[in-house]
Amino acid sequence: MSQVEKHTFQAEIQQLLSIVIHSLYTNREVFVRELISNAADACEKWRFLQASGQLPAVEGASGPTITLTSDETTGVLTITDTGVGMTRDELVENLGTIAHSGTKAFLKALAEKQQSADGKLIGQFGVGFYSAFMVAKKVTVHSRTHAADSEGWKWESDGGDGYSIESASDAAPGTRITLELKEDAKEFAKNERLETIIKQYSNFVTFPIELNAKKINTIQAIWARSKNEVKEEEYLEFYKYVGHDFEAPRYRLHFTADAPLSIQALLFVPTRSFELPGMGRTESEVHLYCRKVLIESKPKHLLPEWLRFLRGVVDCEDLPLNVSRERMQDSELMRKLNRALTNRFLKFLAEEAEKSADTFAEFYAQHARYLKEGILADSEHTAAIAKLLRYESSTTEKGKKTSLAEYVKRMPEGQTEIYFLLAPDRAAAEASPYFEVFQAKRYEVLFVEDPVDEFVLDRVREFEGKSLKGAERADLKLEKQNEGALSEDESKALATWLKETLGEEVEEVRASERLVDSPVVVVERDSFMTGSMRRTLKLMGQDRGNSFEESPDLEFNPRHPVVVRLQQLRSSDAETAGLVAHQLLDQARLAAGLLEDPRAMLKRLNQLLSRVVGIPVTPATTPAP
Ligand code: ADP
Ligand code: MG
Q1: Structure pTM?
Q2: Could you please report the per-residue DSSP string of 341-369?
C-alpha cells in the first residue's frame, strides 16, 4: 500500500537549483564526478560503519562497488552504489533541504564520538547532487540502508519546485540514481564519453567503478598509501599512466607534508626531457587532487613554470575549494603550496646529488636548463638551485663536472672569489688570455660553455659568501717579473700612442698586470657584463640603449716581446707599428668574443704578411685600419 507524498522544495532550494543548473559549474560533465563522489562517500561510510561494528558483518562481501549503466537510445543513465544508503528521513533531509550535506553531518557525528574517517570523505558543500539537474529532466533515487529492518524508498524530482517520495520495497541496500537525460544531454549516455569523464575525474576513487559491465578505474591512488606499502611495479605502472612515458622515470619523490596544508604528493622526473630545443614549452603534468578526486588538471600555479618537467599528482585533503570544486579558493594558499612543493623538491634533488653523483649527472644533462631557467626567472629559489649547478673547471677531468660547494672547498688561501670563464670548449678556455693569470696563480676557473650560464652565474651573485665573477672582470694582478719588460715611462708612452692610434675603438689603454703569454686583452668597462653577454643580448635583440656601442679598455702586457718590440717599432716604422696595433686589438676582441666579423682583419693580416716576406710597401696598400 505505497503512498506517494509530494513535497515542495524550500524556497531557497529552488534558487539554489537554478544557480547550480545555470551558473555554478563551467562544465556540465562534472555531474558525473559529483554523483560518483557521493557514491564513493557512501561506500566509505559503509566501510567505516562495518569496521567499527556499527553494521552487521556480511559474510563473503567483497566490499562496496559503484556501477554505471547507460543506454544511448533511451538516454537513461544509472549510478548504483552499495554504500550506506539512506532512510526516508535522510532522503528528505539530504536531498530536499537547503545545502544540507549529510556528509558534513556524518563527520560531525563522528567527531562527537571522537572517531574519524581519516579525511576520506569527499563531499562537503551539499550542492553536488543537484548538478544532476544540469543534464537530467528527471532524477529518481532508490535507496535503502543495510539495517536489518530497513525499508526501501524512492525519491523523485524533475528539478522544478518539488519532489515526491514513496516506499519502494524492491530497492536494494545502497543507492541507485536514475537520470533521464535532457534532449541536449544525451551525449552523457554514450559509453565512450562517460568512460573519458570517469577516467578524467574519478580514476583514482578507492572503490571499483564499473561502466556498462567494464571496470574503469584500474589504477590505484598509490600516492595516498604509505611508501613502504607500494611496490616498485606499482610506481612504474602509475608513472607510465600519469607521465605518458614509456621509459622508467629518473627520479621519484613520494612524500607527505602537514604544513601549510596536509598534502600527499607523488612526483616523477622523466629520464628524458620532453622539451625539444626550439619546439616551444611543454606543459606541466602535475595534477591537483582532493581526496583522490581530480580538482584541476595541470593547475597553473601549483608549481613554478620552470618545474614543468615534473609529472605526477599532488593530493591535498583540506583544500579550501570553491563550491563547484573546480578551483582552489585561496590564491595565497596556492602560493604557499607552490613554495612548499618547490622547496621539498629542491631538497630532494640535493639529497639525490649527494647519494649518487653519476645519476645526478644524467639528470643534469637532461634537465639542467630548467634549473637555470629557475635561477633566471625565480629569485626566490636561486640559492637552493645554485647548489645544484655543475660545471667543468680547470681542475676537473675533461667531461667531469663540479659543484660550487666543491669549488669553494678547494679554494686556496688568498682566493676570495669564484671565477668562471665562457668559452666554446675546454681547449678554447685553456688558451684564453683571460685564463693566464688564474693559471699562474693556480686559481680554479669554472669553464662555462653556454652563454646563458654567464647570466645564470651572474644572477647567483654569490655562493657561501664568495662572490661569483666572470674571469674577464676579475681584478687580479701577477707579481711583477720585470726582466726585459717596458719601464713605467715606456709603458705610459706606449699607452698614449696606442690610444692615439686606435682612437674611438678603445676607451682607455694601460699596462696590464694579469697577462702572462698574451700580448693584449680587452676589458669591459661595464662591470656587469662580459663581452659575450653583450653579444648574446644583442643577438636576442635586447640592445640596451647604446651601451653596446661603448668601447672596451685595452690592456697590454709590458713583458711580452711583441709589445716590447712595438714600443721601439713605433718610432722606426710607424706604418707597420700601426698595422700591428690594430691587429693586436682585433685579436684581443676575438679572444673576448667581441669580434663580429673576423674576415675584416684578413686584409690587414695580408699586409703584415707582405712585410714579413719582404714585399716592398707601395703607397696604395698602406693605409692602416
Ligand atoms: P555533499 O556531497 O557535498 O555532502 P551532495 O549534494 O553531493 O553534497 O549530497 C548531499 C548529501 O546527500 C550527501 O552528503 C549524502 O548525505 C547524501 N547522498 C547523496 N548521494 C548519496 C548516495 N549515493 N548514497 C548515500 N547518501 C548520498
Ligand atoms: Mg557530493
Answers
A1: 0.80
A2: HHHHHHHHHHHHHHH-HHHHHHHHHHHHH
Residue 126's pLDDT band (cuts 50, 70, 90): confident
**129 Cα–ligand 1 center, Å:** 6
Per DSSP, the residues of 248-263 read PPSEEEEEEE-SSS-E
At 544 the pLDDT is 52
Task: Average the pLDDT over each of 114-118, 225-229, 255-259 and give the range with the smallest value.
Answer: 114-118
Residue 33 three-state SS: helix
Is residue 233 within 8 Å of residue 68, measured between CB atoms?
Answer: no
Query: What 3 state SS string does 180-249 have?
Result: EECHHHHHHHCHHHHHHHHHHHHCCCCCCEEECCEECCCCCCHHHCCHHHCCHHHHHHHHHHHHCCCCCC
Q: Whose CA is nearest to atom 2 of ligand 1?
A: 123
CA of 291 to the centre of ligand 2 (A): 12
> Atom 20 (ligand 1): residue with closest C-alpha?
38
pLDDT at 543: 55
Residues with a beta carbon under 5 angstroms from ion ligand 2: 38, 123, 128
Query: Which of the pair, 623 or 540, is modelled with greater confidence?
Result: 540
State the distance from the centre of ligand 1 to the C-alpha of 389, rounded, in angstroms.
Answer: 52
DSSP 47-100: HHHHHTTSS---TT-----EEEEEETTTTEEEEEE-S----HHHHHHHHHSTT-
Using the atom order of ligand 1, give the atom closest to the CA of residue 37.
2
- The answer, yes or no, to whether residue 527 has pLDDT greater than 80, is no
Ligand 1 atom showing the smallest separation from residue 102 Cα: 16
pLDDT in tens, 255-294: 998 877 889 999 999 999 988 777 788 888 999 998 898 8
pLDDT at residue number 119: 66
**Same fold for the pair 222-369 and 389-473:** no
At the topology level of CATH, where does 389-473 sit? Rossmann fold (3.40.50)
Contact present, 229 and 215 (Cβ < 8 Å): no
pLDDT in tens, 395-413: 999 999 999 999 999 999 9
CATH domain 5-215 topology: Heat Shock Protein 90 (3.30.565)
Q: Which residues line the pocket of ligand 1, CB cutoff 6 A?
A: 34, 38-39, 42, 81, 83-84, 86, 94-95, 101-103, 123-129, 175
CATH code of the domain occupying 222-369? 3.30.230.80
Candidates 425, 376, 364; CA nearest to 540 is 376
To test the pocket of ligand 1, the residue of 104, 129, 131 to mutate (highest count of ligand atoms within 8 Å of its CB) is: 129
Could you state, in order of their start, the residue ranges of all structural domains in the chain?
A: 5-215, 222-369, 389-473, 488-621
pLDDT for the residue 546: 45
> How large a percentage of the chain has pLDDT more than 90?
58
State mean pLDDT over 457-481: 87
DSSP 8-class letter at 328: B
pLDDT score, position 545: 45
For the domain spanning 488-621, the CATH number is 1.20.120.790
Closest Cα to atom 27 of ligand 1: 38
pLDDT at 478: 77
- H, E, C per residue of 519-544: CEEEECCCCCCCHHHHHHHHHCCCCC
